[in-house]
Amino acid sequence: GFGAAVGMFFKFNEYLIQLSTFGFGFLAVAVALGVSALYSRSGSVIVLVLGGVISGSLFTSLLSVLKYAADPNDALPAITYFLMGSLGFASKSFIQISILPMCAGVLLLTLSGKYLNALSLGEEEAKSLGVNTTRVKIFIILVATFISALSVTIAGIIGWIGLIVPHIARFIFGADNRAVLASSAMIGAIFLLFCDSFSRLIFTFEIPIGIVTSLFGIPMFIIVLRRAKRSF
Question: Which residues have CB under 8 Å from 203's CB, separation 6+?
């Protein structure tokens, strides 16, 4: 989001805005990984999550500064609309460029599912099975960041899909990450298109799809939490 705002603030062309979005997406993850590496030699997941919180807060603050300084008649509306997400940002040329790398990334994550299955047992258990946990985690984070950054450059910030869809896939297909990762990509795409079609059919004007995904995502997440509570 901050990378896109930088491009819109300085009136970059479409491709430079997408490049800025992509680059700052990787930078945000690099900050989170850097904080984790600096304060946790053992690679604690909790420290990694805290590093993500710090990185998110940092770029959210910088984004607020840009929005405050942006032209209220031009750049500010564009930044605000982008942060709400919309398939209207997608251009045919950029989709053609992005589709093969994104499919390759999903395939790589799916093929890495067996290593994630081992990691889900705990790091010590995974190491006893011969898994290089540090290398696997870095690889997974980089590939996931690559796919996420491409997605954001195409459609902006669309929330809740990445939060609820993997839980839905896990309830349907079980705990095997090889099935969960592949099915999450498919279910997420279906859910996104459903929300986009709903917003276009119900309203006489196009509203940002991020609003619709939130409206559907919140009650679905509550249902997921209730089912998770029963399982415990």
Answer: none
